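Hello,

Our lab assistant flagged a job as stuck in the queue for most of the afternoon. It eventually completed. Since we weren't sure the result was trustworthy after the delay, we are filing this so someone can double-check. Below is the sequence as submitted and the structure that was eventually returned. Let us know if re-running is recommended.
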Amino acid sequence: MWFYRRILRVKWTDKRTNESVLKELKTERTLLNLINASKLKYVGHALRNHRTSLMKTVCEGRLDGRRRKGRSPISLVTNLTTACGLSLHQIVQKSQDRGGWQQKVRSSIATANTASGDADR
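-- returned structure --
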């Protein structure tokens, strides 16, 4: 986004949304969509792997202790559920079918390309 704003010579003090910059350049958020697709592909792969339960521990497990003050970080589970529009239980179930999961990843990326809004926050 910094580069796109640089091309259009948008000052940092100008109140312009990222979406207006993208619309003016007639482009979309390709990098963010590629990152989300890679995350979904890896999660599907890791959940199907029966030799290790690391991903299940990360997705379903909770850590003991207290977190620091301030805004809570965005978790992997939150990223996954917003990227594909499914609950965690549905993600675990659908990822067991490799072909179906690949189709779901493709469809979620296609819908992300058509959706608008600040998805990078």
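-- support follow-up --
The delay was a queue issue, not a problem with the job. The result is valid. Helices lie at 2-7, 18-25, 30-48, 54-60, 76-84, 88-94, 98-114. The CA atoms of residues 37 and 105 lie 6 Å apart.
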